[in-house]
Design brief:
The protein has strands at residues 2-7, 10-13, 18-26, 32-39, 46-51, 58-60, 68-73, 78-83, 92-100, 116-117, 121-126. The chain is mainly beta. The N and C termini lie far apart (40 Å). 34% of the residues are buried.
Length: 127
């Protein structure tokens, strides 16, 4: 089992920045590929970004490429999502997710691939 807790959400104006954090406890964090997803009202949960165990490989949804970065600190059991140049369409509840892996592959973009989820943090971008 791994427990995930997100933080860092809030209200920001368009063009602003936020950094989300996801702290993990339980099993060995460095055995998990990590992902961020989001869900806007009335919409399905969608992939945002993913990172491999080592942090050496990252993957992004096309709409956030160049604006968002994902990183992790395995010593702190934490994964981050830095969001810059935020747009109103980025408004959603953001969730972090963990997938146990045996290697360093991290390109997991489907929600059903992840076994553990946080409770989510609200991000609201005003125009």
């Amino acid at each position: 089992q791994v427990q995930l807790v997100e933080s860092g959400g809030g209200l920001v104006q368009a063009g602003g920045s936020l950094r989300l954090s996801c702290s993990a406890s339980g099993r060995t964090f460095s055995s998990y590929a990590m992902g961020w997803f989001r869900q806007a009202p009335g919409k399905d949960r969608e992939f945002v970004a993913a990172i491999s165990v080592s942090g050496g490989s990252t993957y992004f949804q096309d709409s956030v490429k160049g604006r968002f970065t994902i990183s992790r600190d395995n010593a702190k059991n934490t994964v981050y999502l830095q969001m810059n140049s935020l747009k109103p369409e980025d408004t959603a509840v953001y969730y972090c997710a963990a997938k146990f892996v045996l290697g360093d592959y991290g390109r997991y973009a489907r929600a059903e691939e992840y076994g553990y989820w946080g409770q989510g943090t609200q991000v609201t971008v005003s125009s």
